[in-house]
């Protein structure tokens, strides 16, 4: 259920005075109720806070604290440069690292990726934002409580393997300015993030190469043509098999956002959960809308169609059968083995990943960590 909570519960400035009409005012809201996933054994929330500066002052954001709604116990916080890295003002370039400032009358999106310790999840959360007048270093520090939201209490979606074997690199990073996590699509007057938990799977060999020789021909990529599997029993909701494929990575034409998926399949696995498989090989899709499939069935092959930098499988789960008009949902895989991870992708395909301490381990009912190397 979509939630829209728009509230300021309390605002105060630490100057020994009551709030006046001239006091700075920030409104916080969470538009999509977050649902916990599990990454590296910890409950993790991916969600967004929309901030609006209703004052005539530029406001420097100092710290955001996440509290339990029931008893306002602190469970996580971000501050300083970390806020700057997570802050985006629509219509502008992402802010550089530094003191994050919200100009008068502006709206900003603050991307949150928060871990919550312990096995018990709170029923809801609220936020405490610390800020001050950015033009006056002597101004008092203010705080506002708001963006109260419940947490979705549905069981996390457990998926089977979408691919066979490996190693596969689970490519995503919530901090990437142009990554799936931060791509907001506005359609029909609503802003949504379909790829909130999306993963791009790229296959490697045991020497950490992703191609056999020249990376320009798509057929040289190790994952190209790999079988793509149904991750659960379900019904095929939609299929697009109309995209041609460039034989060379360098020959890929430019595509608009509406065409970014390339050839894709949408698999309905529950009343409000659809699995999207994107960039599939032309002619490889072996299913049609309305067809029932079983977990493990081959439904297509990994390809290079749509908006892509190389052959890979894009996978995400959303709450509607619409590539750009749906909210991304958390999911975990039944099991996979983790070999290691790339701290960053600067040397991807040139150097091996960083192995796990203690060697490869099997993981059950988790979402792969950012840029981890896994085997199904």
UniProtKB/TrEMBL annotation:
Which species is listed as the source? Answer: Chitinophaga niastensis
Q: Where are the transmembrane segments?
A: none
Molecular-function annotations in GO: metalloendopeptidase activity
Report what the protein is called. Answer: Peptidase M23-like protein
Q: Can you give the residue ranges of the M23ase beta-sheet core domain?
A: 224-323
Q: What keyword terms does UniProt attach to this protein?
A: Signal
Pfam families (alphabetical): Peptidase_M23
Output compositional bias ranges, type Basic and acidic residues: 358-368
By its UniProt entry, which InterPro entries does this protein fall under?
Answer: Cell_wall_metabolism_enzyme, Dup_hybrid_motif, M23ase_b-sheet_dom
Does the record carry Signal as a key word? yes
Keyword Signal recorded: yes
Renumbered to this chain, region (Disordered) spans 356-376
Q: Where is the signal peptide?
A: 1-18
């Amino acid at each position: 259920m979509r939630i829209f909570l728009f509230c300021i519960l309390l605002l105060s400035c630490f100057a020994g005075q009551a709030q006046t009409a001239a006091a700075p005012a920030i409104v916080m809201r969470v538009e999509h109720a977050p649902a916990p996933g599990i990454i590296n054994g910890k409950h993790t929330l991916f969600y967004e806070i929309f901030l609006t500066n209703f004052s005539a002052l530029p406001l420097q954001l100092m710290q955001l604290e996440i509290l339990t709604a029931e008893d306002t116990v602190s469970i996580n916080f971000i501050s300083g440069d970390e806020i700057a890295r997570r802050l985006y003002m629509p219509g502008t370039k992402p802010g550089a690292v530094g003191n994050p400032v919200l100009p008068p009358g502006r709206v900003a999106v603050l991307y949150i990726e928060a871990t919550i310790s312990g096995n018990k999840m709170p029923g809801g959360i609220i936020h405490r934002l610390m800020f001050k007048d950015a033009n006056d270093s002597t101004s008092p520090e203010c705080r506002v409580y708001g963006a109260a939201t419940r947490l979705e209490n549905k069981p996390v979606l457990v998926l089977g393997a979408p691919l066979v074997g490996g190693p596969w690199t689970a490519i995503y990073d919530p901090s990437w300015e142009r990554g799936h996590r931060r791509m907001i699509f506005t359609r029909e007057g609503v802003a949504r993030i379909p790829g909130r938990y999306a993963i791009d799977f790229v296959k490697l060999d045991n020497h950490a190469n992703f191609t056999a020789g020249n990376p320009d021909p798509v057929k040289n990529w190790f994952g190209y043509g790999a079988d793509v599997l149904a991750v659960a029993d379900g019904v095929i909701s939609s299929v697009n098999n109309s995209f041609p494929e460039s034989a060379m990575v360098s020959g890929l034409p430019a595509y608009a956002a509406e065409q970014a998926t390339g050839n894709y399949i949408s698999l309905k696995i529950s009343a409000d959960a659809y699995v999207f498989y994107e960039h599939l090989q032309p002619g490889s899709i072996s299913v049609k809308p309305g067809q029932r499939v079983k977990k493990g069935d081959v439904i297509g092959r990994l390809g290079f169609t749509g908006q892509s930098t190389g052959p890979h499988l894009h996978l995400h789960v959303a709450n509607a059968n619409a590539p750009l008009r749906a909210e991304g949902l958390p999911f975990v895989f039944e099991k996979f083995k983790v070999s290691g991870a790339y701290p960053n992708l600067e040397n991807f395909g040139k150097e091996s990943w960083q192995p796990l301490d203690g060697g490869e381990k099997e993981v059950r009912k988790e979402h792969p960590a950012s840029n981890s190397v896994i085997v199904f």
